[in-house]
Design brief:
By secondary structure, the chain is α+β, with helices and mostly antiparallel strands. The chain has four helices and six strands; from the N terminus they run ααββββαββα.
């Protein structure tokens, strides 16, 4: 059992399904990303740098990709509540897989540029 499994065991079933979907997408796109818990949230690190964090809250879920992707992809994120470095969504209105992949690519580019 990973540290993320422990976190997911404590969220609602609908939230768990959505966060597991995001986890699977991250693992597929960035297989070398390391799972951890950071700031009390599930996190992925790549090359020892934060890739993305995600978390469940009472009325929403959040993906924390840092501010780069939220700035670069602001048009694609217009249907979601976004603040600097945070994207809020729900299991009923999830982030599309293609958008998650774009977010990951922006983060990977940021990490590669150092």
């Amino acid at each position: 059992m990973s540290v993320i499994d422990g976190y997911l065991a404590n969220v609602s079933p609908a939230q768990r399904v959505e966060l597991e979907r995001i986890r699977a997408i991250v693992k597929a796109v960035v297989p070398d990303a390391a799972e951890s818990i950071s700031y009390g949230m599930p996190a992925f690190k790549y090359k020892n740098r934060p890739l993305v964090y995600f978390a469940a809250f009472k009325s929403h879920l959040s993906l924390f990709p840092t501010s780069g992707p939220t700035e670069v992809l602001h048009e694609q994120l217009r249907d979601f509540k976004v603040s600097k470095g945070t994207i809020q969504f729900t299991p009923e209105k999830p982030l599309p897989e293609s958008l998650i992949k774009q977010i990951l690519q922006v983060r990977l580019d940021d990490i590669q540029q150092g």
